[in-house]
Amino acid sequence: MALPSWDDVQPLSLDTAPVPAYGTGSLADLLPTLVAHQGVDGFTPTVPELAPADRNCVFLIDGLGWEQLRAHPAEAPFLTSLLQSSRGGTGRPLTAGFPATTATSLASVGTGLPPGAHGLPGYTVRDPATGELMNQLRWNPWTDPYAWQPYPTVFQQAHAAGVHTAQVSAPHFEHTPLTKVALSGGSFRGRLSGEDRMDLAAQQLAAGDRSLVYTYYAEVDGKGHRFGVDSDAWRGQLMYVDRLAQRLAEQLPPRSALYVTADHGMIDIPFDERSRIDFDEDWELRAGVALLGGEGRARHVYAVPGAENDVLTVWREVLGEQFWVASRDEAIAAGWFGPHIDQRVYERLGDVIAAAHDDAAIIATEREPNESALVGMHGSMTPVEQLVPLLEVRS
What we know:
Elements: H1 30-37, E1 55-61, H2 66-70, H3 77-81, H4 86-89, E2 94-95, H5 102-111, H6 115-118, E3 124-126, E4 133-135, H7 145-148, H8 154-160, E5 164-169, H9 177-182, E6 187-190, H10 194-206, E7 211-217, H11 219-227, H12 232-249, E8 256-261, E9 267-268, E10 276-278, H13 283-286, E11 289-295, E12 298-303, H14 308-319, E13 323-327, H15 328-334, H16 343-346, E14 352-356, E15 361-363, H17 369-372, E16 376-377, H18 383-386, E17 387-388, E18 391-394
Parallel strand pairs: 1-7, 1-8, 5-6, 5-7, 10-15
Antiparallel strand pairs: 2-17, 3-4, 8-18, 9-16, 11-12, 12-14, 13-14
Helix pairs in contact: 10-12, 11-12
């Protein structure tokens, strides 16, 4: 692929990156707001639009971004009917947080903390203790979960304060490290079918005078990755999850609020050289790089010691018109990962961080063959990835 000369390239200004609304309207602000209204000490209602409820249920649909939902009213008539209820009746979305990816977002939801504090700042990041890439979704290679993410979850704190707390999800999630550090507290109830999850979530919501229930569905995201966000398979999943949300809403016990949200949106990446930039085939991008982390639209780049500035310069030269390319300290100062960074998290972040602006991804066909073949991707700060609904039904 022919590249413009450096004199022609105008790198994207970091000031133009739409930083998530940490502290006022991000996923990390949802549960703290709900439990603050339930009287749990130590929390502040930072999403001011949300009204109190004694019983709160969060239904998180993996991969259902705000823009995808608004583009498919025929497939999701029930969820579409709730769009004006989003974010306390303002009709506005939340932001996911950066990067807009499942492990990061679920940790933000469950801990009520931004990525710079909870310490799951990407799909894969370097473990400073070993120098290896750590996959935070699959938790591979193994590391002590409670050393990696030491903060108590909101569920744990609500349970300790006497709120009836439960997670209702697929059984295989019960003992995963990600569940332990992000979503544990109270009881875990595993159910295979979506219908059974909705029914049980409603039962758990009614089980306490004050309740906090979380339930989850994954396959909207799965079909989007494999087939794209406007494929028949994806639309079929959207139709199914629309019926699930309505099933749950129709069973709400008195004094309840149901919030339907997501962990990120998704975008289809064209299969051409400009849109899919192959790190494994590009000697300029590889020069001075020890490890490539993150994912296609949100890369953590770890340089060989002493090569950090050179790698930053080259990545800006090669990618600067398609990606926001920042040094670690620039990304921190811009607030990409939240208002502050815990010291234990600092070196997990890349020396260089690249977040996609255009419909493009940095793939790696040799070291990441499966991820490189995905149709739908996510991770960056664009609205299609960042914005997620917060649809509301009250009884």
